[in-house]
Amino acid sequence: MSAVLWQVLQIVLVIGISPLITGWVRLVKSRLNGRIGASPFQPYRDVYRLLQKEAVVAHSASWVFRAAPYVTFGSVWLAASIVPAFTTNLFLAQAADLIALVALLGVARFWTALAGMDIGTSFGGLGASREMMIASLAEPAMLMVTFSLSLISGTTAPAQIIAFILSGGVGIEVSLGLALAALVMVAIAENGRIPIDNPATHLELTMVHEAMVLEYSGRHLALMEGAGMVRLTLFMALIGGLFAPWGMAQPGDGALAVLVGLGAFLAKCFILATALGVFETSIAKMRVFRYADFLGGALLLGLLATIFLYVSEAV
Amino acid sequence: MLIAAALSALLALAVLGVLAGAEMWRHRLVYFCCMIASLALLAGGIKHLGQTPGTGPAIVLPIGLPWMAAHFRLDNLSALFMVVVNLASAAASAYGIGYCSHLPEPKRVTPFYPLFLFGMNAVLIADDAFMFLVAWEFMSLSSWLLVLADHKNAENRQAAFVYLVMACFGTFCLLTCFGLMAGGEGAYSFPAMRAAKLDGVSGFLVVLLALLGAGSKAGLVPLHAWLPLAHPAAPSHVSALMSGVMTKVALYGLIRILFDLHGEVPWHWGAVLMVVGGVTAVLGVLYAIVQDDLKKLLAYSTVENIGVVVIGLGLAIAFKGSGEKTLAALALVAGLYHIVNHSIFKTLWFLSAGAVITATGERDLGKLGGLAKRMPWNGVAALVGAIAISALPPLNGFVSEWLIFQSLFKGPSLPHWAMKFGVPVVGAMLALAAALAAACFVRAYGIAFLGRPRSKAAAEAHQVPASMRLTVAFLAVMCVVLGAIPVTITDALSHVVTPLTGVQFAVSADLGWPWLSPVSSTRGSYSGTVLVMTGVALCAVTLMLARLLGTSRIRRADAWDCGHREDIPESQYTGQSFSQPLRRVFCASIFAAKESVDMPDPGDNRPAELKVRVIDPIWVGLYAGIGRVVDFIADLVNRIQYLTVRRYLLMMFATLVMMLLVVAVRQSQ
Fold first, then answer.
1. What residues 242-281 of chain A have any CB closer than 8 A to a CB of chain B?
2. Which residue of B has its CA nearest to A82?
3. Chain A contacts in chain B segment 162-181 (CB below 8 A)
4. Cβ distance B435 to A107 under 8 Å?
5. What is the pLDDT of residue A200?
6. Fewer Cβ neighbours under 10 Å: the N or C end of chain B?
7. Do B443 and A123 touch (CB under 8 A)?
């Protein structure tokens, strides 16, 4: 019973705090840039304002364009509902594992890319084409991370991996470090952050994600932006949960443990969001064709994480 | 009985097809009857699959070689493939009812089509090597004639020639393979082969030849070269079957030999298969990404999917050879599931391509666009197929790839070092192929069905006949069904796998019906059913929230396009521009992809040109080389063509003496 309750809380939590996390990253960045910056609650207002506006849809758009925001947001939300944030006692924990999680993010990307091509403008196609190129390297890298985690813990289910790490069955592993590095690189690419993509610009030379959603307005744009915010939260929960699961409540724990879990999750998000802001201000964006090196590196790190397990075993 | 009747009906239909002549309704009738026969065969297959595993009824007919009767038998493996083959053929036949009137020369297709169906089904129920090979050739030659249907096109004739050569090569390998398995006594029936023990060298050769023979038909790299030529050349409902189903019959041959007749394939062959499968998957999808011809793209995508299946088969062999029977069953179930899935979504896409060709007369992506609005049925069905083929949840393609990943992740538990280090690499290849497949189908669907029309033909596209719309809709529904109730499918597949691996195995053993839990409940589980329900609920909540918090008003306007208001459809991204980043990243080294820009000087009226050149390393490196060697040998042999009678007699005499010498030497030993 409590699994269902915590699941509902998780579902509400991820969309509840996502705008705050995004707002916090923006605030950190503006402070580091020497600006005062907007309140961290600004994204809530932005989304609400967009929802109020009528949606402008191009004559050449098909139904795919109008369905894509809902499917994209729904699948990212579903994916975020599966990643344990504060407790592993979730109803949906068995319905999907990390492989399914990667694929659910793939669904969101698939529809966004199609929506980008639907109007028939050059920018939409450009964004879709680059996004799929990035995904073609980021997805395998993430699956390699899953692979090494599954070899260490014997499972691909995030809740079980967290339980295994919390039980102290794993010490300091080189593989875990490599996997973490790969996952962070993938997270940067998947969320369209610097150095891969700049979420704050609309310049044709730099944009990937923004180019795909360029034609959106009103509630459609709100959903697309919202999906991006939820995705950022998802990756924070994933990194914080898999590699620093401390404080996470387990099945059988009471409400107090869940409260501790919630506190720990918020603290982790705060730290990761601040780190992201600092990282983004201290690095420049890459050229498009350098992405392949960056993400190829992530893929290789993921692969090395798997192979290192045997090397360390043999030594 | 049902199956025998349906098969004889197919043979009779071939005759009817010859008599059909120019009357279109007769052609339609033949396709309709083909559909009925396929449905009957489908029912026969499903009925047998529902029964308990075990050997099926055997039938012996007094035909065939003089001293040997023809053996037929339907067991679980054949029944499964019979379902796969006939589900797609029923759809393709129904599609043919509407499509045949759009063909340039329907009478060059109708007679051979039933023969093709007959050949594929006969391969599945053959129970001796002779019948198997006869049926195999039946399948190859009838499909060769279908590839030649549009024989006025030089490209098609070239494709048919390459196909014929490859088919001969494949049959030659299989013939030798069966010869080795039959042993010195010539026991050509399958039960006898099963009982026979192969020694080391013959065991090795049997696997190698099976891999070459069945692999060339299935399209394993580097034997895939005929596939992207021949599949697009045939009429679309035939290419759907060649690509979606005939390659599966080839895999049936491979599974039959490696898991059933040979029985004890050592584990390292599994490693070989996995590497071949991984390379096939990645190369196949890379080829697909750079194609502008829609049907060629689909043919290369088949190469990719065959690679995915072969990875599963290789894993199963590696597990089985190492004594991990349950994991072997899991990998085999995963491979078979992908076979079922691919037969459905690839048929769906080829039939959609046929509809696109019927509606626009174009199969060049650069001249399509905006079809989703003009052909709504095909637009939706092709989108479902694209999601399924990109292995995205909740559709069927994801479930089988999930199962393959789950079994791959258990691969390093094997004690062999090659597996420990090799499996992660193959896993990375599979993941790469899956991600690239998504890119490939975003490109194919986005360019052909979305955006603005890129040519007059695309702008004036019209709906296709009802039979062509209903079949793709049916296949799209199948994609959803096979994805939403995976456990029902895996249970049916475990019946098939039990006799091949020797274990009773159920993927859902731990958690019950809607949950797939391959190894145990704590090792990672998946439930398409629960995921679909939650996903739909969340999307509905999203819709409600958006309505509740905001407005539902919509305004139609011109595209914004960053303020660029000129209505030029040519400014859209094309297939080539879409694949440019991927081409740069992946294809620059593998395919020596090069782009050259020809920019005229100011004042010059020539249009600027951007040319893309992609070189297939396998054609250039392998086949061109073989061609040169064959030419060289042919030149040498040419010299004996113009000898005098005296010299010919001398040669015969010398040969006779040589033979006698050999006999004498052997007898004296």
1. none
2. B531
3. none
4. no
5. 75
6. C
7. no
